[in-house]
Design goal:
With 282 residues, the chain is α/β, with parallel strands linked by helices. The chain has 12 helices and 7 strands.
Length: 282
Amino acid sequence: MTVTTPTEAVQQFYDTHPINEQQIIEKLTRDGHDPLAVSQDILQDYDQDHFGGVAANDRLALMAAVDTGSHVLDVCCGMGGPSRYLAHNYGCRVTGIDQSASRIDGANRLTRMTGLDDRVSFEIADALKMPFEDRTFDVVISQEAFCHIPEKRRLTSQCFRVLKPGGRIAFTDILTTDRTRPDTEIRLGCEMTFQELGSAAGYREVLAEAGFKGLVMQDIGDQWRKILTGRLEMYRRLRDQTVERFGQTHFEKWDRAYAFFVGLYDTGELGGGRFLAYRPAQ
């Protein structure tokens, strides 16, 4: 009997995600763009696989004071949409890491298409064992990805380690609330591969233990409720493409899982948070 590890489950989840490299290329083509000659100004409207699109990138970048001198680490970068956006619009360098080979391969190809591969690079890496020297980056970012990573203390410690003194971490994540039921977390673990959901209080604790200071937390659960309803509708519009590539059974399984997930924002069982903290200069 073959046993799927948590890491493999997350990889399979994103290998069969409705938003993927092929879907992006097909949408560009249908809209009259040549994928072989696409600019970042165009691509950034197609490749943002996180809640809130480019506006969410800007909020994190402004919070973390990203500028032309910044070297940014994008943890769980997926296909690299935010990484390319930051490099193009803020003039920074970005390194993205993810454990999904298909996502990293797609990220590299899309980046070469836009000519940003001199400032943006991607590699397969474990966020709990980052392959970087201490004090490498000015900024660490992530968007709705830490929910897929267990051992939040190890994760925040790794983020602290690779940041330079004075460096900033800015991220968003899906959060539990005082209404979240144990059976809900179990189902989300099975269907959405959420390995360990954090809470506002939990992140406050692990960030402080890692050594971060100046924590700022923003409750964005209400904002996400409307955004997620729109994302569910968008995924349903991709039904034909999803069925063609992955089959009817997969589409129906995905639709049930995502509809359940979105509904948890209406019941208050899930929330969302935007976090900023810094590594002390000394």
